[in-house]
Amino acid sequence: MAFVKKSHFLLALILALTLGRGYSESESLLYPYGPSEGDHKNPVQDDGTSGEVSISVGFKFFSKEYTTLFVNNNGVISFKTAVFQYTPDAFPLTNGETFVTPFWGDVDNELHGDVYYRESTDDNLLKMITKDMEKHLPEQHFIPTWAFIATWDKVAYYGSASEKFNTFQAALTTDGFRYFVIMNYDDIQWTTGTASDGDPETGLGGTPAQAGFNSGDVSHYFNIPGSRTAEVLKIKSTSNVNYPGRWIFRVDNFEVPGGCVYKAYFAKEGEEFWKDSGCRTKCRCESDGDIPCVDEACPPTATCEPSGSFYKCQEKENSCN
């Protein structure tokens, strides 16, 4: 995970530091965060990290239990080591790194924004999570006893010449038996820093942010739709629990509610797609998470077109007047 040294934009930094900072506790999508919640705050440092954080509960992530973690400024919670890399690699990673990545991109909180985190057994917070889990996954009957909340609040991108900021959050939670990650997206205005070939005015282009997680082996990983493409800018409009801006995963025994996982990509329940560029093999996401596939080509009236991570048969436009 080598990375090159980035030159600093001193003028942009000076201008950006004159901008006001703040955080919102009123957004229903996000769990409360910030100084009033007793949160710790990461160093104001490009590519910075919290350092190793001890947690009182062993958090199971793909059958392994972790009692320490790192909250990294570049949108990553890691379990083995700090992450300084700012341009995201495609999952699966081959170096054994273990990540939860709500939005792995080139954050620069020297320009704007803050990164907060806390461990909590607060009744009010746990009741909020319980209510959300009852709403989204009632069959789980999940009542948490512990949570860890990390929030990236109005953070800028490296090399920014704009006032575009991102706010997002990851919540790790358990009842002592099951382990979930909840990702909340409040406002996403950029995807890429300039050191990842993004545009300084728009924060777009280059190698966009990655969202999902990597287990540390090459078999278990997940990409939220749009990851490392321009479509990740729209992540607030996506969900696997029918609640735009929220994704929920069970991570001790890997489950992605609301659909199926095919080659680390998400398909909604009932969705039909073709897995090959010639649209020769049609697949369907079933309610039990299975994805049966059959040999079935597009009809003569349709063409095979890319559609997100898969392919779809699109009806040809009628050229007749």
Automatic annotation (TrEMBL):
GO biological process: cell-matrix adhesion
Key words, A-Z: Signal
InterPro entries recorded: Epithelial_Barrier/Signaling, NIDO_dom
Residues annotated as domain NIDO: 102-254
First and last residue of the signal peptide: 1-24
Pfam families: NIDO
PANTHER family given in the database record: MUCIN 4-RELATED, SUSHI DOMAIN-CONTAINING PROTEIN 2
Name assigned to this protein: Alpha-tectorin-like
